[in-house]
Amino acid sequence: MPNRRATRRPTLADVAAHASVSAITVSRFFNAPDRVGADARIRIQAAVEALNYVPNLAAGGLASAHNKVVAMVVPNISGPIFAHTLQSLSDGLSDAGYQLLLASSYFSLDAEERAVRAFLGWQPAALVLTSRHHSTGTERLIESAGMPVIETWDLALRRTPFQIGFSHRQVGRDGVRYLAERGYQRIAFVHNSAAGDYSAKERCEGYSDALKAMGRTPQHVTPKDPDPLAAGAEALAWLMAHTPRPDAVFFANDNLACGALLAAQRQGLRVPQDIALFGFGDYAFSDKLLPSLSTIRPPAREIGHCAARHILSLAAGEAPPRHTALPCELIARESA
Known about the structure:
Layout: H1 12-19, H2 23-31, H3 38-51, E1 69-74, H4 83-94, E2 99-104, H5 109-121, E3 126-130, H6 136-143, E4 149-152, E5 162-165, H7 168-181, E6 187-190, H8 198-213, E7 219-221, H9 228-240, E8 248-251, H10 254-266, E9 276-278, E10 295-297, H11 300-315, E11 323-325, E12 329-331
Parallel strand pairs: 1-2, 1-3, 3-4, 4-5, 5-11, 6-7, 6-8, 8-9
Antiparallel strand pairs: 10-12
Helix pairs in contact: 1-2, 1-3, 4-11, 7-8, 9-10
């Protein structure tokens, strides 16, 4: 494939030499670790980390299967925001006889690294990741992967992997511009309570950039409740209890905005007359709320379709674009 790297992946023999043990001992470390002494296990683990070694789990007759499996790590499988991407990617691959293997990191860089290391051991046809924010260990695994790596839901032109997505910072700017054009003066931002949501942090950075360019002071809050609906209600309560109160709130996602909307109604607040609410994601329920939720719709389906086309093109020996920018759509409804 056009983007396979020339970097030689470390072998089991390299690990054995680095740890000063036999290759058989390294093999036992992976297959029957209780049969390896404690000192040897420590040395082998250190060698694995130092060499960035990934065991070849596809050996022993399964190597021919790896060309028909694509691995993907997403921050959250259970949430709605990535569902359309997963479905469209799976549909595009299955038509060509490929299967999609999934793992969820739940916004943890360490969990993503563990998933990537495990997936690479199966030698998939391609590795698909969500965003460009990774641990140092994952970056090293990407660099030596020896297969196409596609980062989705993000766009950073200096990155080496294929990228399909959009600028989250621009989403933040666009949301502020929309609210400001409708006359809102005090616009706050509510973060995701999941600490590792770096894409939401970039949207907040874009929000701050836009407000500062208008000569206004950003105001943002990070709720603590892990449940997004409860977190949205928590954030709204905090904002309403502090002065100056915002007249509009930009939420990191529609779940948070929905929680705030329901809480506002319980508190007797009129939306958007007393407080305007604006989200991100355009979830399936967003147009069914009362009032319906104004939001920004990411190109979720298009990202999955495009990633599938990239993978199939690479498998055919073709060279798809290194960076593919897809537009988000601002959806003006009743809440702002």
